[in-house]
Amino acid sequence: MKVNRRVTREVKVGNVTIGGLNPVALQSMCATKTTDIEATLTQIQLLQSAGADIIRIAVDSKNDVLAVKEISQRIEANFVVDLQENYRLADEIGPYVSKFRYNPGHLFHHQKETSLEDKVKFLVDTAGKHDCALRIGVNFGSLDPNLKNEEESSEDVAIKSAFFHTELIEKLGFKRFVVSLKSSNPMSVVEINRKYAKNFPDVPLHLGVTEAGMLPDGEIKSRIAFEQLLSDGIGETIRVSLTLPDNEKDKEILIGKQIIEDVHSGRFRSVPKSLPAGLNVISCPSCSRVENKAFVELAYKVKDALQEYKKYNITVAVMGCRVNGPGETDEADLGLWCAPTFVNLKKGPELIGKFSYEEVLGKLMSEVKIISKDRMIV
């Protein structure tokens, strides 16, 4: 199958070029703690062996910066750093990476007296200083609170945020950036990326279904979005986000590679225009932001425990960190937002209580039983 790809500007990230007529670049993110240098090096090697073009590492402290410095001296890779909530670390980490990713929804956390425009200018100037690219990473789970209102959907707010930051960066004369618009709903991913591509045809797009969850559902959700977008020529780099044990993280790259090959060969495994009715378990990818590795085991236990509810319209979110945990669990019928020593159990935006990792599954199933009474698929 011949895919008529749109031709965007080219964005160089280390020795990989995103956009233009270059192959779709494959990305993943380390699930290990950045300061655990040996474990992180092992995972980078695993991802590189699978064919990763770009590898993302989370940095949230000066100790993380020191760890990335040592890692970059011991292995060659195209590193992109996730600045999380601390954009000010960009200047310190700049010499050791090829790209920064910032989330517009996180820029308000630090230095609240500094304007958004000044913060973005700092990132642009820092990227130029260190020969780095930028990614504007918009995520439904952590949208800019200043843009939210009751009348607009998450899709509307995400698009508004992406448009605003694109225009802001371009006004600063910076062109070396890509944009991502991510949701745990694959059809939302399709819709917002099509809208963005129509309005900014020159800007490369990083595709991802965030919190896609566990296999096989996580691959299915990713395919629903990627097959529709890639076949339209939209998407210059992709990341498959799965909840996986550390030693299986390479599956994100292998599955992404297979999806790209299938699209270009005309093999489509997903035709649905929307997710089928029934149980929907959302779980975030196992990344270095996860605050307790017990999250992964808990996610699999939740999935197994919910099998008898496959024919019920219920959405359960299992989230491993404070970054996207609050937002994604707000959108679910029931949510588990995992902290270092306990789990927040929520019903929509309402907190039911905080429970240990051992007791929360039983509490969850009690709530599922209550809400399932009128959710059976007829």
Describe, in plain words, how this protein is organized in 3D.
The protein has 378 residues and is an alpha/beta fold. It folds into two domains: 11-265, Dihydropteroate synthase-like (TIM Barrel); 280-374, Sulfite Reductase Hemoprotein, domain 1. Helices cover 37% and strands 18% of the residues. The chain is built from eleven helices and 15 strands. It has helices at 37-50, 62-74, 90-93, 116-129, 154-171, 186-199, 217-231, 251-265, 294-305, 325-331, 360-371, and strands at 11-13, 16-18, 25-29, 54-58, 79-82, 99-102, 133-139, 177-182, 205-207, 237-239, 280-283, 315-319, 334-338, 343-347, 350-355. The chain has an eight-stranded parallel beta barrel, surrounded by six helices. It has a five-stranded mixed β-sheet with strand order 11-12-13-14-15, with helices on both faces. It has a two-stranded antiparallel sheet with strand order 1-2. Helix 6 packs parallel to helix 7. The longest helix has 18 residues, at 154-171. The two termini are 39 Å apart.
